Amino acid sequence: MEALVRAATKIFLKEGYGLASIDKIATEAGISTRTIYERFKNKGELLSAVISRLIDRDMQSIAEVGELDLMEPEQALTLIGRTVASRLADPESAALFRIVATESQRFPELTAKVRAGGKAHLDVVLAGYLRRQMQRGVFLPDDPARAAALFTHMITAELQECLLFKSQESIGALDQRDHVARVVRLFLFGATPRRDRPANSATRPGNAHR
């Protein structure tokens, strides 16, 4: 399975989604097309598996759920935010993102599959973390899935704009650590002054409002 996904990754990056074919992927993997169709209905599902593999790989670099819960919110959200940002900045991930974005109009079902797969993987970590913190009273009660989506969009919006309208090099010009720190600060504290907010909290991980 791993060899098949690696072969599919190589073909998608080389040919793009439109020109990639199950035959080419089978040849690259050294297996029959029948073997591929026994596992995947079409190449859209295969591309979704390719992107899910990248997300799984990146999510493994995040601390275990139990360890996240032991961190202060600012530390935990910073760790998650940096992992998501690093994934988008990775050349292989960036190329696959462009493929999906380019083909979204011609193959809307592809975009739906990829977004559903990616969102599901990230939500296991982020929405689950937020839900548990809400239950403990660390965060105000809210919709954890929606809160997770908003946090993710804040992290990825500028990076995705670079990928769509600029170049891979433009991402390198961004200070990702500062970007993530600003997002975490805005997510935790909002944009208005608060009397109970610790001074310079965003510059020192672990000083989130409790």
Can you offer a commentary on this structure?
The chain has about 210 residues and is mainly α. It has one domain: Tetracycline Repressor, domain 2, CATH 1.10.357. The protein is about 75% helix and about 0% strand. The protein has helices spanning about 1-20, 20-30, 35, 45-60, 65-70, 75-90, 90-105, 110-135, 145-165, 170, 175-190. The protein starts with a helix and ends in a 21-residue tail after the last helix.
Quick structural gist:
The chain contains eleven helices and no strands.
Structure keywords:
disordered C terminus, 210 residues, elongated, mainly alpha, 11 helices, Tetracycline Repressor, domain 2
- Which shape, going by the Cα principal axes? elongated
Number of domains: 1
Q: Average pLDDT value?
A: 80
User: What's the oligomerization state?
Assistant: single chain
- β content, as a range? under 5%
Amino-to-carboxy terminus distance? 45 Å
CATH topology value: Tetracycline Repressor, domain 2
The radius of gyration computed from the alpha-carbon positions, rounded to a whole number of angstroms, is 19 Å
Q: What CATH architecture do you see? A: Orthogonal Bundle
| Number of helices, counting only DSSP H or I runs of 4 residues or more | 11
H/E order of the elements? HHHHHHHHHHH
Helix % is over 70%
Report the biggest beta sheet as strand number plus sense, adding barrel if it closes. Answer: none
CATH class: Mainly Alpha
Protein structure class: mainly alpha
Total number of beta strands? 0
Specify the CATH homologous superfamily.
Tetracycline Repressor, domain 2
Q: Low-confidence parts lasting 5 or more residues at pLDDT below 50?
A: 201-210
